[in-house]
Amino acid sequence: MGWFGRRSHSEVPSWASFFDDERFRAFLTVVEAELVSRGLTYELGDGVVALHGPGVKDGLTLGLQNLAQLCNHEPLAAWSDVVSGHFAGMLGRDAEEAELARRVHDFEAVRPSLRVRLYGEEVAGPERVTWPVADGLTAALVFDLPTAVRTVSAEDAGRWGRSREELYAIGLANALKEPVEVEEVQLEGGGVVQALMGPSFFTSARALSLDVPDDHPYGALVAVQRLLGDELRHVRLCAEVSGWLGGLDDLDVDLSDVGPPPGGEPPAARALLLVARELVVAEAESLAALRAFRDAATEPAVRAALQLLVADEALHVVVGRRLLPLLARTLPRSQTGPTLARLDDLMEADRRELRAAYLAAARGGPGRALGASLEPRDLRWSRPAPRPRVA
Fold it and tell me: Which of 231, 226, 194, 189 is nearest to 209 (CA)?
């Protein structure tokens, strides 16, 4: 019996609250048709579906909320393709895991799929094969499957009888085979900025193979793709939302003063200031504003887009608070000393200026439901976290 014969749709469940009744029924109809076409039987739960049938692990449970959100951002005519692609990927992963379990005992069979991938420190642990890289950064050995990446367990590696050094060398060598594009920018004061870009999850692993001369005074400053990638993704997301609301043709967007503040400090002091003022302060203040816009918005798609921005900005603030003391400890104090002495005052001045600007722009008006209008009462700041100790 289909879902429509087993449940009432007079109320949309909370996990799909962005749908109205009609679109929710349409969503379930498309999902049901896809599962029937695959010869599967199913049981609907609260935001999940349990599957039974050929080619799947009996009782495999998949979430529906992310799929519903994907459909909600597409026209109804595209839902069949979205749902089909989603289940093809999810069920393909289950089949891949089964195939991997069959081959994992044979090292030579899985060797080509081994990669080293950079993660945050939360991935480190005795149950996985990992290596510390830097504060907050870990390299992990993973299987690169056709539609997913899975970490290699210590149990898996224990069967192979290979040293950690050999596994690292094999995984890194495989990761470095992934294609990348390289752009170089010569800095006016000397030095080179290299941007490595690629579609692979393993592009950032090239940070593990830097060739820095032994006599280089500072080594190399590496920015892993997450921060820069997030900002580019934010631009794309905001442009997409603007397209939903009519596009940018009638707007005058002034970006003339967007960019790092000017300054003539030594390079080390400049790096310290950028992290303190842009990540620790500016990102934290924008986070408060984004939360206010998210909470004011009632249009589900816009609210979901703002939530993505909030989640990323929160991570950026954490990164800044961790990076600031690290730079202060490792950069030459001969360059950073005067900056450190006035850093608290600079950060507080930036914080006051940004809050005043956000409050001045919160003038109410139309567009609140679409995340485009705030009242001053919407902006709420907690007391700023103490500046990380850098001494």
Answer: 194
